[in-house]
């Protein structure tokens, strides 16, 4: 379990180096502890593995003031465990259900037990700024519309494939649009009066 905790800690450290999420951001975590153990998703949920993952991932996010949403399994329609304050901040509707290892999954169960004032919400309404998927449990529906893969050096937690994503605002405009501050300043130079 210590190896899983350390790998999770390294992964989130690298994630935050590449995408420094700020206070009030929303991070989504989905994962299969069965996959971490090398088994088929849903066949061997492990509270111990979930605890090790959350011990590695949560502290760096919480220290930054980042809200964490932990996705439940398909048996709860991918409902998520969040802090009540996060649900309020993002306008998320609370639902009545309590996750357990066979309906919700071990990660959601342990998150529910660890969070200060946990609630379950049906959806993040595609508002998460970034996230991690451990074992291919599909978190994309919770991310903002323009998701960008983050390539971490930590490729697996245990036996589970680890995927990470950040999001960025949509690029809007057409042929005349610019997308960096530097490009904007360069364009402004074209309109400054030239000396005679």
TrEMBL record:
Q: Which SUPFAM superfamilies does its entry note?
A: TTHA0583/YokD-like
One matching Pfam family is DUF436
Which InterPro entries does this UniProt record tie to the protein?
A: Antibiotic_NAT-like, DUF436
Q: The organism sits in which domain of life?
A: Bacteria
Q: Which NCBIfam families match?
A: TIGR01440 family protein (TIGR01440)
For this protein, the record's HAMAP family field holds: UPF0340
What family is this protein classified in?
Belongs to the UPF0340 family.
The protein's name: UPF0340 protein SAMN04488243_1172
Q: Which organism is it from?
A: Thermus arciformis
């Amino acid at each position: 379990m210590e190896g899983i905790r350390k790998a999770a800690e390294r992964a989130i450290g690298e994630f935050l180096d590449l995408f420094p999420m700020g206070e009030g951001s929303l991070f989504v975590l989905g994962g299969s502890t069965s996959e971490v153990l090398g088994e088929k998703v849903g066949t061997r949920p492990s509270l111990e593995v979930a605890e090790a993952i959350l011990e590695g991932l949560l502290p760096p996010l919480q220290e930054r003031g980042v809200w964490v949403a932990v996705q439940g399994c398909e048996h709860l329609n991918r409902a998520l465990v969040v802090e009540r304050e996060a649900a309020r901040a993002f306008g998320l509707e609370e639902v009545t259900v309590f996750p357990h290892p066979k309906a919700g999954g071990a990660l959601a169960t342990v998150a529910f037990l660890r969070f200060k004032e946990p609630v379950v919400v049906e959806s993040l309404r595609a508002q998460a700024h970034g996230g991690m998927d451990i074992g291919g449990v599909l978190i994309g529906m919770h991310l903002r519309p323009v998701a960008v893969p983050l390539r971490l050096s930590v490729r697996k937690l245990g036996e589970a494939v680890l995927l990470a994503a950040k999001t960025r605002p949509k690029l809007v405009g057409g042929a005349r649009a610019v997308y960096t501050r530097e490009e904007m300043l360069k364009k402004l130079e074209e309109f400054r009066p030239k000396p005679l």
